[in-house]
Amino acid sequence: MLLQITTTYQPATDLGYLLHKHPDKIQEVSLSHGIAHIFYPEATPEKTSICLLLDINPIALVKGVRNLAGKGFSLGHYVNDRPYVASSFMSVAIAKSFATALNGKCSGKPELVDVALPFEVKITVVSAPKGGALLVRKLFEPLGYEVTLEQHILDEKFSEWGESNYFTVSLKNNIKTKDLLVHLYVLLPVLDNDKHYFIGQSEIDKLMKKGKGWLEHHPEKEQITRRYLLNLKSLSRNALERLLDEEEGVVEESAEVKIKKETLHSKRLKLVCEKLKESGASRVLDLGCGEGKLLKMLLKEKQFTEIVGMDISYSELTKAKDKLYWDDMAPRQKARIKLFQGALTYRDKRLDGYDAAALVEVIEHLDENRLAALERVVFEFSKPSTVVVTTPNKEYNVVFENMSEEAMRHDDHRFEWTRAEFQDWAEGLSEKYNYKVKFFSIGEEDEKYGAPSQMGVFTYGD
Ligand code: SAH
Fold first, then answer.
1. HSE value, Cβ hemisphere, 13 Å, CA-based, for 265
2. Does ligand 1 have an atom closer than 6 angstroms to the CB of 132?
3. pLDDT along the chain (462 residues), means of 10
4. pLDDT at 116
5. Quick one: pLDDT at residue 462?
6. How many CB atoms lie within 10 A of CB 461?
7. Whose CA is nearest to atom 16 of ligand 1?
8. Is 365 in the pocket of ligand 1 (CB under 6 A)?
9. Residue 458 phi/psi, 5° resolution?
10. What distance in Å separates the CA atoms of residue 360 and residue 274, rounded to the nearest whole number?
11. Which of 44, 149, 441, 450 is the most exposed place for a label (fewest CB within 10 A)?
12. Is there a contact between 142 and 218 (Cβ–Cβ < 8 Å)?
């Protein structure tokens, strides 16, 4: 399906800056379910259009789903309208292709971020099975869009079959770039009520965040929320969930920032691994192990005879298994490692009896009022001799290019702490649960703001 965004703001070629896509280049953004081709059919100072052509691979959609056998392997998995209509996949493509603009940033022309510009959008095609044309209007018109719809007939050769549920939608508005993208991001999957990805708490949070400033005033607020959050227990659910997870939090960054972040994370993991080794531990827990980068490092160290990775997210654990080549792992290695799903806010007997635990960039993913539960689970019940905790140092955010003071480093972060806040928390809980804590910084230190990341190493007793 095709999304075309046109502006007549002068010079219209500024659209290239706004969307961080150069008008002279044809670009491809790869998605786990296909490719987004981005190009400008027209780029003149008077009028510039950008197209996002989403080329969905129906095979890739099905591939992600495990255990198809036994659940009805019908052709419907392959033959459906998914490749042709703008749905949650279009949202994912928008998020990945225009991440910077979606976050309200524009490094080339920051002065344009807050300016409402004349935009025209054409989406070919949208499926609106329930509510049809009226629904499209009800969703977009309250936000100031002028809506034109072209309904397609089912088959030109059989006009007696009548109209289909598919529309070419044209929208016109004077609006800020970010708002335009956010509206499309949220409302396209709302229109498409057919197959939808599984909605978890983080999706709800995401909708709340993206809907801030407009959704709460929208007359169709309830309908939008309900449909967006719809959980159709379809077979594609897991696949779509996983696809979405993959794309989630993708932030368009310069290669330089990416490299910096990459090295920061590997520095962090190395340091955590070092601290775990120094502790003399042999049985270790990686709590909130994510895709298993630390697990991979720990496996290389003979000192660790039993390694556990736990995460709340099934899809992260699946990724960890892939990263570790789980299915092809030598039996001796496999005997050293266990992976399981679990929540750190509930007491879990499986966490008993370990020498050390790592919580790498995990605490900030919990709501602050759930931290006390995590503290009890880890420091009171599991009670390993050593606990290593890392979390971003919020003060450092201003040093990152393009990061405003109030922004967080990841979409899913519930809070980020200054060094003093982290130390207060760590010292408080050490006193409560009879631990001693030492602090270390991770990454290159800035004189004023400290290092990008911080670490506390807790040891039990004296
Ligand atoms: N430690 C990994 C991943 C950090 S991202 C690394 O450094 O690469 C945070 C991870 O914590 C995510 O994988 C998320 O699924 C997990 N997580 C968030 N809340 C959790 C909870 N309550 N219980 C267990 N894991 C949780």
1. 14
2. no
3. 92 93 89 86 96 78 43 50 65 86 87 93 80 83 93 82 84 96 86 52 67 80 69 32 36 43 82 97 97 95 96 90 87 94 94 97 93 96 97 86 68 89 96 96 89 95 78
4. 94
5. 65
6. 7
7. 288
8. yes
9. -100, 135
10. 13
11. 44
12. yes
Residue 392 CB–ligand 1 contact under 6 Å: no
CA of 407 to the centre of ligand 1 (A): 20
Task: Specify the pLDDT at position 154.
Answer: 80
Q: Can you tell me the distance from the alpha carbon of 458 to that of 16, in angstroms, rounded to the nearest whole number?
A: 50
**Residue 47, SS3 per DSSP:** coil
To which H or E segment does residue 181 belong?
Answer: helix 177-191
Q: Whose CA is nearest to atom 3 of ligand 1?
A: 290
Q: How many residues does the chain have?
A: 462
Q: Which residue has the tokens 């046109």?
A: 6
Instruction: State which amino acid sits at residue 280.
Output: G
Kindly report, residue by residue over 174-201, the tens digit of the pLDDT. Answer: 999 999 999 998 888 777 654 344 445 5
pLDDT 10s digits, 67-84: 333 334 455 555 555 556
DSSP states of 203-231 as a string?
A: HHHHHHHHTTTTGGG-TTHHHHHHHHT--
Could you tell me which residues come within 8 angstroms of residue 116 by beta carbon, excluding any fewer than 6 positions away? 174, 175, 176
Q: Is 312 in the pocket of ligand 1 (CB under 6 A)?
A: yes
- Please give the distance, rounded to the nearest whole angstrom, from the Cα atom of residue 308 to the centre of ligand 1: 14
pLDDT at residue 75, as a whole number: 54
3 state SS of 197: coil
Compute how many other C-beta atoms are within 10 angstroms of the C-beta atom of residue 278. Answer: 11
Characterize the bridge pairing of strands 283-287 and 306-311.
parallel
d(CA 176, CA 103): 12
- Flag whether the pTM goes above 0.85: no
